[in-house]
Amino acid sequence: MTPGSTVTGDDLLRLLARAVDDPAVQASLDQLARGMQPEVDADDDGAFVDWVTVNEIGLEYGFQDEAFVRAWDPERRGHTRLVLTQLYFYGDTPRTRSFPYPLPFGLDFRDDRHAVQRKLAAIAGPCRTYIRDAWTLPAFDVTTAYRADTNLLESIYCHIPHDPWLPLRDEAALAQAFPPNLFAGLFGLRWSDERLRTILAPLGYAEAMAGVRSEHMADFLLTHGLELTFAPSRQMAMGDPRYPRSLALAVATFHSSRDMDARAWAGELPCNLSFSDAQSDLVARVGEAPDERIDSDRSGIVAWHLEAYSLVVVYSNIENRILRVSVMAPGYWQVVHADDGE
C-alpha cells in the first residue's frame, strides 16, 4: 500500500497475520494512522495486545504478541513480534466517523441485517446469529454488528482466532472418565475428603490442593480446561452440617479452547452441548427454556436449574459460541446471585 493509493477494506484484510514491521503493514499505518505504532510492555505480565485506533476514519488495528496467539511456550510471551490479528471497520458511532473507503466483502453501512447475511452467505455460508452475526472463514473470523435504531450495519470485526494448545497425550481418554454427572455426585464433599482426593487424583488434584486452600479453586486450566470451585458447606444443601465453614465442592467448569487461556476440555459436556454451539442451539440441546438469562454487550449467561445441578453456560456475544459450561450444586446459584436484585 503506497501513499495516496486507493484504500479498500479487502486490501486491509490481506494484512492480517503479518508482523508489525512488515513493509505493507507499516505503509498502511503511515497512510491511515499517522504512523502510530502499537506497543506492548514485555514487563507487564498479561499485556499481549495493543490497539491503534483512528476514530476519524472508523478504523482500528489490533496487534498481539505472536507467542500468545500461536500458543507457543508462555515463557516467550512479551518477547516475540507483534502480529496484526484484528481489524475493526466502524460506521458513524458516538466515537467514530464512518470508514470512508469501500468495506470488505462488498458490504455497505446502508445494508440492513438481511443484506449483510445474504452477502456473507455467498462467501462463508450461514452465520451464527444472536445480538450480532458471526462467520468462520478459513483465514479469520468475521462479526457484524447493527445499529439499534435502524438495524443497519454498524461495524465489521475481523480477527484471527487464537491457536489451541497442543493436546496432551491420552487427554481425551482421561477427560472422558470425568462426565458431568460424576462431578455432580461429588458436590458437598469437603476439599480434603478422602473420596474426593482419590477420585480426582488422575487430574492432579494433590498438586492443586494448595490453590483450593488459598483461592477456593482447583485450577486445571492449562492441563485439562477445567476449574473446580469450592465454597463453605453451609452454602449447599448437601454440605456436611457438622462443618459449615469447611470448603466443599460447589462447581465444575469446563472451558473451551483458549477461554481464560485454557486448554479445551476434551470430555463430555452436559446435555450433549458442544463448544461450537451458538446461543440459538442451547434450548434445543437442553430441551427446555432456561430459568435465567443475562446478556451484556460482549457476553451472556444462561442457566437451567435442573434436579441434579444447575447448568450454567457462558457464551460470547462476539463470536456467538460457548465459552464455558458449569455444573453447579443445587441452590448454589441462588446463594451466589442473592444480592443481584438489590
Give a description of the structure:
There is one protein chain. The protein has 342 residues and is of the alpha+beta class. It folds into two domains: 9-159, no CATH class; 171-336, no CATH class. It is 22% helix and 25% strand. It contains eleven helices and 14 strands. The strands form two sheets. It has a seven-stranded antiparallel beta sheet. A seven-stranded antiparallel beta sheet has the order 8-9-10-14-13-12-11. A hairpin with a 4-residue loop joins β12 and β13. The radius of gyration is 23 Å and the shape is globular. The termini are far apart.
Nearest-integer average pLDDT? 94
Instruction: Write out the strand line-up for the largest beta sheet, numbering strands in chain order.
Output: 1-2-3-7-6-5-4
The count of DSSP E runs of length 2 or more, i.e. the number of strands, is: 14
Q: If helices are DSSP runs of H or I spanning 4 or more residues, what is the number of helices?
A: 11
Spans of at least 5 consecutive residues with low confidence? none
Brief synopsis:
This protein is 22% helix and 25% strand.
Ordered list of secondary-structure elements with their pairings:
Blueprint: H1 9-13, H2 23-32, E1 49-54, E2 59-65, H3 66-69, E3 82-90, H4 113-124, E4 128-129, E5 133-136, E6 141-146, E7 153-159, H5 171-176, H6 180-184, H7 194-200, H8 205-215, E8 217-220, H9 221-224, E9 226-232, E10 247-255, H10 282-286, E11 292-295, E12 299-305, E13 310-316, E14 321-328, H11 332-336
Antiparallel strand pairs: 1-2, 2-3, 3-7, 4-5, 5-6, 6-7, 8-9, 9-10, 10-14, 11-12, 12-13, 13-14
